[in-house]
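Its record is set out here:
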Amino acid sequence: MPEAARAAGAEDNALEKATLRQVTRRLLPFLMVCYFVSFVDRVNVGFAALEMNRDLHLSPAVFGFGGAIFYISYFLFEVPSNLVMERVGARRWIARIMITWGIIAAALALVTGPLSFYMLRFLLGAAEAGFFPGIVLYLTYWFPAEHRARIVGLFTVAIPVSSLLGSPISAALLSLDGSLGLRGWQWMFIIEAAPAVLLGLACLVALADRPTEARWLGAAERAWLEARLAAERARPKPVGRQSLWQVLRHRHVLALAIVLGGSTAASSSLQLWQPQIIKAFGLSTMETGLLNAVPFAVGSLAMVLWGWRSDRVGERVWHTALPLALTALALAATLTTDALFPTLVFLSLAVTGIYAMKGPFWALSSEWLAADATAAGLAQINAVSNLAGSGAVYLIGVIKNGTGSYPLALLPLVALAATASLIVLTLGRAQQPAARPAQ
């Protein structure tokens, strides 16, 4: 290689590293904190249930339906939310989402029975709809495809961390029971909702809609990033430029939604039901909070390492399928024991699979969608997958009511995760070689 070409390549490589390091430091920590708060507000109802269900006489089936209805409204409003964000800009729309969900999350302290519980959970889903796919879309504006599994993995590590840290925090807040005449679960809803409103206001200052507006990037860094992303948008994709309705019903989009549904069903169900599964072994609320954090600690580490490995080897399909298979096997294994320690081990393996697949899956999805299809496609994938989450959360309550067994109630999750693993392998055999970005 001529010396001039080698020098130019080294200079371009240095510019790439400097640009991505600056973008990562500027955006990722803030977005991770926002997502952490969103998940705390979404799943803290699982800890509230330890007291709220008794206070309000909510049966497992009623609680399961209240947990599920969140995902129904999330599904209904997710695609419209992403389309609006693309039109008005991420900075203002993400701020709107966070402020409204914070207000509604605090209002859960006013629940008095099944009807008000259902109504506020529905409104919370509608308010938060579009946040996650909106952020994934936003990250495609800033990070080239070959870096996305690592970046999405780092961003979505906020999901297990929200349970890792949120579990003991929520358990501690329940100890405020009786202060100023409020129950502990009411204090928990109010206190944990406040950061969403504050961070929503901070979005208006902290975020830039596109690299062209990022004054914190140098001119050379902006030019390099815009050129790289423009070149990626020009590559052919399995889901090309099409109308909105064509994108929403495209077979690749719907297949990817089913794949994600296998993970979402397990994730949503364990976030809401796992505290009750663990507490059923006769533990105190604080002991439950501490042990509930263990699977999510393991899952957090696996998510980062697996996303990094997917980027390093440039492979997405197997990095999505294997964690889903692990989740199915681990949840099935809970049927083999009625002891706390092995149950905790199996739950930890299941959670590891749930979260390890996130980075490779979303990198794969964004690589298969053309630029004009990305906003609607990502939202549709996430929205449809949440229907699986909704149905699974409710079904677990029904099965638990009928059998009294949590392991039996987890069997639908086994089927969904196993099916998802097989689908992504089948779909990837024909599509991945053409979809993988040039290295």
Summary: The chain is about 80% helix and 0% strand.
